[in-house]
Amino acid sequence: MIKRTILLILFTPTLFNIQSAVTEPDTLTTHELDEVVIKGEKPLINSKEGNLSYDLLNMVRDKPVSNIYEALAYLPGVRNNNGVYELTGTNGVSILLNGELTNMPLQNLYQLLYSTPIERLKNVEIMYAAPAKYHVSGAVINIILKTPRPIDGLTGQLSSGYNQAYYASYNAGLAANYAIKDWTFDLNWTIGLNNRRNHQETYSNHLIDGARKMIEDDMVQKGDNLSNVIYASASYKRVKLTYNGQIVSDAHASSYSKGTFGEYINRYDYSQPTNYHNILMIYESPFGLSVGGDFTIYSEKRNQQLTKDDEQLVEAINHQSINKYHVYIDQEHSFNKWKLNYGFEYQHSDDKSKQTYLYPPQSGFNETLRENVADGYIGVQTSLSFGLSFNASAKAEYFNNNYLHNWNFIPQLGATYYKTPKSIFQLSLMSQRVYPQFWELHGGTNYINDYAYIIGNPKLQPYINYSAQLSYILKQKYSATLYFLFADKYSVQLPYQMTDVLNLVFKTLNLDFSRTVGLQLQAPFNVGNVLNSIPVVNVSHKQEKATHFHDLNFDNKRWSFYGALNNSFIFSQRYPVSISLDVAYITGQIQGPGRFNSFWKVDAGAKWSFGRKRCCELNLKFNDIFNTWNPKLYINYANQDYKMILHDMTRNFNLSFIWKFNGFKPQKTSIDTSRFGTGN
Hints:
single chain; mainly beta
């Protein structure tokens, strides 16, 4: 929260002259008034045409935050769940850059945001119901960046980072932008040496032949790779060309487990670098016409070797190659206070994937999955004089692939009533079609060991999310959001103990529905100029139902509570050190017929700005200090009795150093929908 103190220079008033009745001369008498101090707060939240706009740059100015990725965690309702951002009150959220949808995989996008300086941020919009003109359905976080100006020259930053979880990881990056006359250039490059380790225990009390058999397994998963992420764009007047890509090399992954059936080693080697490349071109005319198109290439080749007590069980090759192109055309007309927009979009993909078993001899697959999506939309938006503004759109979409085809109707509405800054009301309504991962549709098999394995599902259908949110914002600061979510034919991957054989199978299946009703409250406050706190409370009720989950049916319901308190401390405006202390707690939730436990965490951090004009930053962050943000899944329903305990998921220490050059100066006052990858 920013408080600005304004000192008013007061003139000295001339008072009445009092003349002595006897011999006193005329005397001018003055009275000095005390200074008047006016304290004001810059609004953190604004709303227009169904969107919420946040001054995120000022919300995190005292936090140990140096990039946009880390800053997103401080948006109201946004939560970083093991590295993936979620938006409370939605079934998933997409991230746009300057209103443009990037087709890069989610982790590439996160890496780009991680390497983008926080000073590049202008503001952030949250749309619970994104208009069709953005070519994305559902909730959206729209990150709006400042446009480089010729007067700024070359600006940017160099950064380096060290992360210590169970293993150490390292990264370095360059972010720079430049503008000259009608040209603007933007470059982000990050190289990272990544090392990870996960630990999980499973207890499968398997019912077979009328008796229970407890099968225990203690697994450690390890992985390392060298990744290069590049984002580059060049704009000339109304034309923009963008390239984003990732090359992951020297990648290795393995799991080591021991338990009831013995000791297993599962190795995954990548015989060639995993490549992702995307080229995008956009043209925006002066009369409201926008035309764009992009082309994507993705390839991955992974070899698996599974051994048990030094005996080979499985040797397989998984290969995925995807070519995808996407084109669109949009038109917008303005009529006084009204805007009319309409457009068309088409995308086609060829997924050439194969799975070959060298041992044991068994069938795999070698096929091309072709997919087409075409849609057309029409929308309107306006701001009326009595305080009501809204945007509404309707989209008709056709989808087909090798296995199914369907028509979808996707309506959207975002409305805001904003008569005075004291009270703002916002309503959002949306539907969204969610498509399964490419690899799952091939129906292949990935073995964890000779007891547990993952299988695809060619019959997996897309499901539809319906959502509604009603928000009230008081004094552009305090907010309350009531939300309703309904996912028809919702799909999820869950373990299932087979009834006829002693095997545990993980398979993604369509359920009947998933339904959630909830209320979220946020009420930031300050204690003097030292403490800034943002408490968030969310209460919800969730229900998931299935009449055909393998050979079971279930109807699971549960209330849950989430609470968080983010605190930042500044001991002096002149002292360039700030400290943060954040806590979060969540009660148990449900997934399918299973339930999760309650868990909590404490994070702490510090930021030190130094150097000439504070061009350098040193950031320290301790995440999940007590290693308590670890979920446990329990399934104890009908003939299913299964427990999974995850360890060492989020505790880590992060140290980063940043040097900002030229224009980047301290201020004084973001659903993976990419569908790529051979993992299930």
